[in-house]
Inverse folding.
């Protein structure tokens, strides 16, 4: 299920848009520790396409999509890195 | 002239692919996008690969499609979404060339001749194909060739998610054995004429003396002869290059059958209002008014009339349309669908001959009225000011072709 979320974001002096935290509809708020990648991408899981921000949130990697004017989080996606880490362990 | 490298990219089952992307739960089912059944626009507009396997065809009625495949998922269209995806695809294409020419929402030619990074056409095509899949989540098939016609042929040749190259060395082997109707602009009636003189494949067209084609098809003969032989040299347009408008039209299938002149008047008034507003927006005047009619037996025909003067006055067009309609239709059957289009367009700043019979004062009044009503509609919406006769049957007149039908079919020329 595609779930749109509220996002606090800032425009930096170069005009780049950077998400700062995500607010779930139950009021929980998650700060985004770091954005590691920004690119156009489709989300097959949630169903949509737009600008994809790869975000570090509480030690997990999540995809946050800006679709037109709305944000959504890709349902418990991938993270390849996390599963790799588990394999390593 | 240097050999050109032209790509034609075609989004596979575009509307259906976009719908499937947004609805993961229907992705693995046969899906078709179809118009609104309640308003009787219930025909198939697009289908996905799974639905194709059931031989579901674009243009057939929903019930016909369901007969072929009872589990078919039918979803309504979301044109705004398709326009967004079309624009996203175009922005990818435009990163490879400044010559990108859209052909409808889901197809485009890209001229990548003389790539600064020295990549071949196929290399660029493969990259675009992968990027569209990754960034848009839909697939394209791309044809690569030395002219637009064979590039388009290539994109149709193998799909979905494929790249086909048609070269000077292989086109006789790949293109020529295919049926004549696979060539752009060989439609149903041309195909029929061709087969009546023993021409069945594209190769047959190419090898037939041009005089025979010309005698049978007129100037179309010259055209398809050059297409079949790979002589097409039409350029790929620059991005956003000015594309002169040749006609402006709207048509609609009405929510119920039209039974008399009053019904037709209500619908025609709305259509005229829309086309005239679009005409004025483009800053054009028109001289020829066409109506097209389709009866409940699905028989359709067109009638047209030339006005004495160029005009953009809604009332003049409305009156002309109704006069033409009354003259052309005998009401043997109720009507299912009607349309209005204006052709023979000129810019509205050309010098104009003033009417010698002195209707000029009246015309100026009407122009002023149109201007005011346009402004009101723009500001307060299409339903804010309406003709009184449209309130008699709101079911028939409550549609807004100007904003609801933003997608217009395109021609190659």
């Amino acid at each position: 299920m595609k779930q749109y979320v509220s996002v606090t974001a800032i425009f930096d002096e170069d005009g780049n848009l950077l998400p700062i935290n995500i607010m779930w509809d139950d009021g929980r708020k998650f700060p985004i520790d770091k954005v590691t990648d920004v690119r156009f991408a489709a989300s097959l899981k949630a169903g949509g396409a737009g600008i994809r921000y790869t975000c570090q949130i509480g030690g997990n990697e999540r995809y946050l999509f800006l679709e037109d004017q709305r944000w959504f989080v890709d349902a418990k996606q991938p993270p390849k890195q996390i599963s790799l880490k588990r394999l390593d362990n | 002239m240097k050999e050109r490298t032209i790509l034609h990219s075609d989004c596979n089952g575009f509307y259906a692919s976009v719908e499937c992307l947004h609805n993961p739960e229907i992705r693995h089912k046969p899906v078709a996008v179809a118009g609104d059944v309640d308003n009787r626009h219930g025909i198939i507009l697009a289908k996905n690969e799974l639905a194709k396997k059931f031989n579901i065809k674009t243009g057939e009625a929903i019930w016909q499609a369901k007969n072929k495949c009872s589990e078919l998922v039918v979803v309504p269209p979301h044109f705004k979404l398709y326009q967004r995806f079309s624009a996203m695809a175009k922005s990818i294409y435009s990163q490879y060339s400044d010559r990108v020419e859209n052909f409808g929402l889901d197809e485009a030619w890209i001229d990548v001749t003389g790539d600064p990074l020295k990549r071949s056409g196929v290399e660029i095509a493969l990259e675009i194909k992968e990027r569209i899949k990754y960034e848009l989540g839909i697939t394209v098939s791309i044809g690569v060739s030395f002219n637009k016609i064979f590039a388009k042929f290539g994109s149709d040749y193998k799909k979905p998610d494929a790249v086909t190259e048609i070269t000077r060395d292989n086109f006789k082997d790949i293109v020529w054995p295919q049926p004549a109707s696979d060539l752009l602009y060989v439609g149903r009636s041309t195909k029929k004429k061709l087969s009546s003189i023993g021409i069945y494949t594209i190769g047959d067209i190419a090898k037939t003396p041009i005089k025979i084609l010309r005698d049978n098809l007129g100037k179309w003969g010259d055209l398809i002869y050059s297409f079949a032989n790979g002589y097409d040299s039409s350029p790929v347009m620059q991005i956003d290059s000015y594309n002169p408008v040749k006609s402006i039209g709207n048509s609609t299938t009405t929510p119920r059958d039209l039974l008399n002149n009053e019904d037709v008047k209500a619908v025609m008034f709305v259509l005229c209002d829309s086309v005239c507003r679009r005409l004025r927006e483009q800053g054009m005047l028109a001289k020829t008014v066409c109506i097209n009619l389709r009866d409940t037996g699905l028989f359709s025909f067109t009638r047209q009339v030339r006005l004495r003067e160029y005009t953009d006055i809604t009332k003049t067009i409305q009156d002309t349309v109704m006069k033409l309609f009354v003259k052309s239709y005998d009401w043997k059957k109720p009507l299912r669908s009607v349309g209005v289009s204006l052709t023979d367009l000129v810019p509205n700043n050309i010098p104009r001959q003033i009417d010698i019979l002195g209707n000029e004062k009246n015309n100026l009044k009407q122009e002023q009225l149109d201007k005011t009503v346009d402004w009101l509609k723009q500001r307060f919406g299409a339903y804010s000011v309406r003709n009184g006769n449209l309130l008699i049957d709101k079911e028939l007149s409550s549609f807004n072709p100007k904003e609801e039908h933003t997608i217009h079919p395109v021609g190659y020329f």
Notes: The radius of gyration of chain B is 24 Å. Residues 247-404 of chain B form a domain with the Dna Ligase; domain 1 fold (CATH 3.30.1490.100).
